[in-house]
Here is the input.
Amino acid sequence: MKMHDAAIIGAGPAGIAAAVQLQRYSLDFLLLERGEVGGLLRNANWVENYPGFPRGISGLSLVQRMREHMQAAGIETVQAEVTSLAYQEGAFHLSTSVGELRARVLVIASGTKPKLFTDLDFPAALCSRVFYEVYPLADATQRRIAIVGAGDVAFDYALNLAWRNQIIILNRGERPSCLPLLWEYASQSPSIAYFASTHLLRLVELPSGELLLECAGPDGGVQFKADLLIGALGREPQHDFIPAEFRSIAGELESRGLLYWIGDVKNGIERQTAIAVGDGVQAAMKIYRRLKDTSL
Here is the structure.
């Protein structure tokens, strides 16, 4: 089995940045992605704080720029899902959907996953109309879409979809927790309606095919009709594929310069594209020095 210098799990901004830098060093690496390149950036309506784009850029457009950069650098992704990890005999062993892979150094850039509705039991027939990411709805037009949540993600999703759809935002709390700028943008949109202290209790399908959202509002029961429902309930690190045995030695591997966590998988609420890119470049530079100056 071939031994690669490094393996990167995840082709979001952090993983891409690490790959670009490793390519500059002429190292032999794998960039693994189970879905589509771009990670959470595919959900972003408008990125206004990434240097070089003074007027901002849409998330999908920035992903396309990154794809073009990868293509120009000759970087290809391996379409594969990592199902388990182990470190044995001086190498990382990755069990994937395309077989077993080995690498001397491992970079985990697996990003985050959305938190799901846990207090609601949706009818099975309606699950296909409940979403937790916005990019699958990029082509939605003239739909009524309800979004549960009131943070940056909820408002960014709303702004992303409001160009061609009618949006209602349902906030369980009294005040939105998003950036003031997002609140300002949403308040100015005639396609976005916001409801505070409104808690979704039940989702049913009407004879017309519409969804009926039965909610508890500040003045009692309230109902909304929608075509689609999005849960914007927060994010959590995506590392389900990492077994407990590997976690127990992860700290030691990090201290030895063999394992790196980069991007959203480690950054908590500081999920910013610029931070993720910096993580990726820094990790690649450390990997190069580790491989160049020491014997693994």
